[in-house]
């Protein structure tokens, strides 16, 4: 509360103390600014016509010093233009007149505190939203980096599969062919025809049945006129992969 008349400040104290506020007072705009420099407040109620600094000018400076405060003018003098300008600038929340009605003044002060709580909550939520967005951006950047690394790794693994001397076959847990190297293509046909196909439909029957089995195992199968020792390895023990890898080790030359 800022007013150069001590009796006004005393009357305001008597009226507002019943509402449980912590009340601070100053006798001039300069004293009010000095108080605000060291004390955070929620609502400012200032007289308009005071010696030296007017209430409007005090509230303009108070807005700069404490932008989150809710600022009201209480005055018996209606300097309409200066008060209108201050309201348009956001320096003043409301203009109240003297003499005041006690209950109406209390209601206006309560409304100012409600406005302050709402503004504080909006700022809190905005801060949380900015922090959440920043965290999401970091997570997306990390995920994008992980995707790039995984693509490079998959590229290396794909090249490795192609240069290995044995036919290799990857089947997912649903029985779809998801990997086939050049050696397998030479043995069974085009990899393009194999990839994405159901193992029962695109693989020789004996190889499809063995691929459908569970766990690590091996067998000997006759494929393309030659015998192959087929190793089946269950994936997922050391990674999130699900499916099986089959390695075909020729035990004799394939005639095609």
Describe the structure.
The chain is of the alpha/beta class and 256 residues long. It folds into two domains: 6-124, 3-Layer(aba) Sandwich (Rossmann fold), CATH 3.40.50; 165-250, PAS domain (Beta-Lactamase, 2-Layer Sandwich), CATH 3.30.450. Helix content is 49%, strand content 19%. The strands form two sheets. A five-stranded antiparallel beta sheet has the order 5-4-8-7-6, covered by helices on one side. The longest helix has 62 residues, at 102-163.
Distinctive features:
alpha/beta, 8 strands, single chain, Sig_transdc_resp-reg_receiver, Beta-Lactamase, Rossmann fold, 256 residues
Number of strands: 8
Note the beta-strand portion: 15-25%
- The name CATH uses for the topology of the largest domain is Rossmann fold
Mean pLDDT over the residues: 87
User: What is the number of independent domains?
Assistant: 2
CATH superfamily annotation of the largest domain: Response regulator
> In order across it, which strands form the biggest sheet?
5-4-8-7-6
Q: Which word captures the global form?
A: rod-shaped
Secondary-structure element pattern, one letter each = HHEHEHEHEEHHHHEEE
Structural class based on helices, strands and sheet pairing: alpha/beta
- Sheet having the most strands: 5 strands, antiparallel
Domain Response regulatory: 1-113
Pfam families: Response_reg
Modified residues (4-aspartylphosphate): 47
Coiled coil: 115-153
């Amino acid at each position: 509360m800022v007013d150069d008349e001590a009796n006004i400040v005393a009357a305001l104290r008597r009226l507002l103390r019943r509402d449980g506020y912590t009340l601070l007072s100053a006798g001039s705009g300069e004293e009010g600014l000095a108080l605000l420099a060291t004390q955070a407040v929620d609502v400012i109620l200032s007289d308009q016509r005071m010696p030296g600094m007017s209430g409007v000018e005090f509230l303009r400076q108070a807005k700069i010093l404490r932008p989150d405060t809710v600022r009201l003018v209480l005055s018996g003098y209606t300097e309409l233009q200066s008060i209108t300008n201050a309201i348009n600038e956001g320096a003043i929340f409301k203009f109240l007149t003297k003499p005041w009605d006690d209950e109406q003044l209390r209601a206006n002060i309560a409304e100012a505190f409600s406005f302050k709580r709402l503004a504080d909550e909006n700022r809190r939520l905005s801060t949380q939203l900015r922090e959440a967005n920043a965290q999401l951006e970091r997570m997306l950047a990390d995920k994008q980096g992980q995707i790039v690394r995984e693509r490079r790794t998959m590229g290396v693994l794909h090249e490795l599969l192609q240069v290995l001397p044995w036919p290799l076959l990857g089947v997912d847990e649903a029985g779809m062919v998801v990997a086939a190297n050049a050696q397998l293509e030479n043995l069974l046909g085009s990899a393009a025809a194999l990839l994405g196909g159901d193992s029962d439909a695109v693989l020789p029957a004996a190889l499809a049945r063995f691929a459908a089995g569970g766990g690590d195992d091996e067998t000997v199968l006759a494929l393309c006129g030659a015998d192959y020792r087929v190793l089946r390895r269950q994936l997922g023990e050391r990674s999130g992969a699900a499916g099986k890898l089959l390695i075909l080790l020729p035990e004799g030359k394939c005639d095609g």
